[in-house]
Each structure stands twice: as C-alpha cells, then as structure tokens.
TrEMBL record:
Compartments where located: Membrane
Alphabetical list of SUPFAM superfamilies matching this protein: Immunoglobulin (SSF48726)
Encoding gene, per UniProt annotation: Havcr1
Protein name: HAVR1 protein
Organism: Baryphthengus martii (Rufous motmot)
An example molecular function term from Gene Ontology annotations: phosphatidylserine binding
Amino acid sequence: HALCSIATFVFLSTGSTVSGSLVRGEVGQNITVPCFYSVKTTQDITSMCWGRGTCPASKCYQTIIWTDGWKVTERYNSRYMLKGNLPMGDVSLTIVNAEEADSGIYCCRVEISGWFNDQRSNHKVVIERARISTASPHTYTSEQTSAHGSTSESSSTITATWPSVSPSEATQTASDPCSGTSDCLDVTTNLQ
C-alpha cells in the first residue's frame, strides 16, 4: 500500500442519515475513499453500492460497484476496487491510478432493511497533479550546465530542485548516484 493516500478526513453534517468526507490525492496514486457500516452478526451483512454524484433517494446514480455484502457482484470499471474486509463492514472504495477526471462526489449506499434505513454517505474526492516532479541526476546536471553565470546561480538551481536538502547534502546526493562521472564532478566543484 505504498501508493495509498491517507488523507485527512473532514466529516460533514448534511442531515441525520447522510455523512461524508473529503479525500485529497494526486494523479497516479491509489486513493481510498472510506466507508464502513456496523456488522455485529452475519445477519447484519448487506448489499451496498458506490456511485458517482450525491446519493439519490434509492440505489446509486452512475453505479461503479455493487456487492451482495460478501463479494463484489458488479463492477463497471476495473480501476475501482473494494479492498477491505466486506463481511466486516469495510466497503471503502479504492480508485487505482487516480486521474484528475476522478475528482467529484461519490456516494456510498449501504442497504439496511426497513423503510428509509439505508446508510448514505457522500464523499468529495479531489485529485490534483503532483506539485513536485522527480527527475534523474542527469536532468539536474543539465539544468546546472545550462545556468551560465556565477556559482551562486548554479547552487540556487540545484537548491530549488531539492527544496528539502541543504547545499552540503545536495553535493552528496548529486555525486553518489553517478559513480564519479565527469558531469557529476562538475556539479560538485561548482557547488563548492
């Protein structure tokens, strides 16, 4: 689960029977949208659905997944999965390899027997592009090489690329993966 995004959940009060959360993630991650219901005995295990858009009066709009309580019985897109323990009431939705188009409202509806007893929750999902892109050490060298000017300009180029690394640590980081190639020695020399 290295790619799973554990977001800070903000629970919204939109009525006595509807709860929800806000889940944020980045493009390319696996995003898990939380949904649970109480299972005390096997009699409590029940069917449920996930859909796009807010929960309607019954069922789900633009249905993504149906379960019978024990297993997934219908799935409309292979990128949507239920990885939790269904018979224990964990019906959280995992969106695999999230895209910006996955942003929006999702409905989790658990069908509880009786009139108007269904457990409904609306979840807002926000998928954003990654803010910091990663690149190979050669890319850093190219940026450094193209910076015509003083040593301070070269250093600031590398410092900006590694915002969490001090200049002395950046020297080690830049030189270690390259096994002493001439490009990497140039970077180290300019930093010093």
